[in-house]
Amino acid sequence: MKLNERIKFYRENKKLSQEFVGFQLGLNQSQYSRRESGTIKFNTDELEKISKVLEVDISELMGESTVFNHYNQSGGNFAQTIYTSEDVTKQYASIITEKDKTIELLKEQISLLQSLVSAGK
Description:
The protein is rod-shaped and about 85 Å long. It is built from 6 helices and 2 strands; from the N terminus they run αααααββα. A hairpin with a 5-residue loop joins strand 1 and strand 2. The protein has helices at about 5-15, 20-25, 30-35, 45-55, 60, 85-120; strands spanning about 65-70, 75-85. The protein is mostly helical. It folds into 2 domains: about 5-60, lambda repressor-like DNA-binding domains (434 Repressor (Amino-terminal Domain)), CATH 1.10.260; about 85-120. Helix content is about 65%, strand content about 10%.
């Protein structure tokens, strides 16, 4: 989900109008609408104000938040938030895919070497 889409999502969840949020940013509804539609990008000052108006951390607006649930030894549950960008997540997925390919190639090489050793005995 893109930044402008996340902002719209949070705004709608709070049941706030574009006019209201735009006013908080010093923009009219039309100017705000162009930002929320992605026609114009939000600047950093606007993002700070939007995060306060929507009561959402900037990292969440930027799509950098992942929540992991952990359990302690007593069986209690607690959550930990780790921040990663979408780019890092994509790079990680690419690395995992490459690792899997390498493992398969190594398995084939091991199998070939085992057959060569068996044939030489």
